[in-house]
Design a protein that fits this description.
FAD binds at residues 143, 171, 195-197, 234-235. GO terms for molecular function: nucleotide binding; proline dehydrogenase activity. The chain is α/β, with parallel strands linked by helices. The protein has helices spanning 5-19, 21-29, 33-41, 50-62, 79-98, 118-134, 149-160, 177-184, 210-225, 237-245, 264-272, 287-297, 301-311, and strands at residues 66-71, 104-107, 138-141, 166-171, 190-194, 230-233, 254-259, 277-283. The chain has one domain (49-284): TIM Barrel. Bound molecules: flavin-adenine dinucleotide (FAD).
Length: 320
């Protein structure tokens, strides 16, 4: 989807609001604004607590969807906070295990230590991988801005040689991804392919365009040629239609993955056609940034956000 000039300005303005910690703090401390924004966030975030995330996960799982679950957070700058985030992921896995929710656990490495020290991120990742193994769950590492790609892939490669149930996300928009994927296909693990959410320098990336869509599909096909597990993570129905035409979803290790609250209609249609669909759920108190990003990346979401503030959010799981 290429944004118009006005939408691009809106996206940039919202992203700068999202980065402004004073505004975030103001909203979070305002007894009027906080509940209002929280109503809009409810469309995209299951709630502030683990219990809410797991309850929505169980509902969607009943309907035949696979689940990814994330405790929202990124760029944690203190060791103790990284440890607390890792502990929350461990507790979440134990809760999923006890409730028989066969979820995938998704997270940013910068939430569990990468921004402090890559060794700390690796240590926490290995601990989480051991816990995931205990409950037969899998882990999926998100991909962050290009300045972190090398560190994320280094930590991933070290961990996946010990634990095969870990995957990593790659961004089709980065030119380097073609080479990164070829290398990762020689490792165990799994890959999630996304177009890429970060604004990157011009020379490093392919902007939203047909060229990017073609690259995205080329990467999916490379995984298939190597019989490599791949999650096609997009809300772009045209991409799904084209991949279906090319027979890509006839392989059991290829799935579609969409964020909670976004295009539940596409999720339903894909599932009806027999495509395995995974819904990515989030919970936690850091929902403000997540909400602003969902609106910035697709400006028409502002209509739903304002309607939800006024009327309260509809029953989102019922839309699936
Ligand atoms: P676009 O080209 O952006 O849009 C195509 C069409 O999809 C639009 O016309 C519209 O119909 C629909 N659409 C797109 N976004 C929305 C929306 N917010 N609301 C409603 N409709 C929409 N990015 C990273 O950089 N790192 C990650 O680790 C990462 N993990 C992700 C995990 C999952 C499961 C998903 C689905 C996305 C993830 N992303 C990640 C975000 C991704 O990179 C894209 O920025 C995002 O998915 C938008 O691109 P798109 O492929 O959906 O299509």
């Amino acid at each position: 989807m290429e944004l118009s000039y006005a939408e691009k300005r809106f996206e940039n303005a919202l992203k700068s609001v999202a980065r402004n910690l004073d505004i975030k703090e103001y909203v979070q401390n305002s007894k009027d604004l906080y509940p209002l924004f929280q109503r809009s966030a409810k469309r995209f975030v299951t709630g502030e607590t683990r219990e809410e995330g797991i309850a929505v996960g169980a509902q969607l799982s009943e309907k035949g969807y696979d689940i990814s679950l994330e405790f929202i957070g990124e760029n944690t700058m203190e060791r103790e906070a990284c440890r607390q985030a890792k502990d929350e992921f461990v507790t979440m896995m134990q809760a999923c295990g006890h409730q028989n929710l066969r979820s995938r656990i998704s997270f940013d490495l910068s939430h569990i230590g990468l921004s402090v020290d890559p060794e700390l991120a690796l240590e926490h990742l290995l601990e989480m991988a051991a816990e995931a193994e205990r409950y037969d769950l899998s882990l999926m590492i998100s991909m962050e801005e290009s300045g972190k790609t090398d560190d994320i892939l280094e930590v991933y490669k070290k961990a996946v040689t010990q634990y095969e149930h870990i995957g990593v996300t790659l961004q089709a928009q980065l030119h380097r991804t073609l080479d990164d994927l070829q290398e990762l296909l020689t490792y165990p693990g799994a890959v999630r392919l996304v177009k890429g959410a970060y604004q990157e320098p011009e020379e490093l990336h392919i902007p939203r365009s047909e060229t990017l869509d073609e690259r995205f599909m080329e990467l999916v096909q490379l995984c298939i040629q190597a019989d490599f597990p791949v999650s096609v993570a997009s809300h772009d129905e045209t991409i799904y239609q084209q991949l279906m035409k090319r027979g890509c979803f006839e392989h059991s290790y290829v799935e579609a993955e969409l964020l909670y609250g976004i295009r539940p209609d596409v999720c339903r249609r894909l599932k009806e056609k027999g495509v395995p669909v995974r819904v990515y759920l989030t919970y936690g108190q850091e929902w403000y940034l997540y909400l602003v990003h969902r609106i910035a990346e697709y400006p028409p979401n502002i209509y739903a956000a304002i309607t939800d503030m006024i009327e309260g959010v509809e029953d989102i799981p019922a839309l699936y």
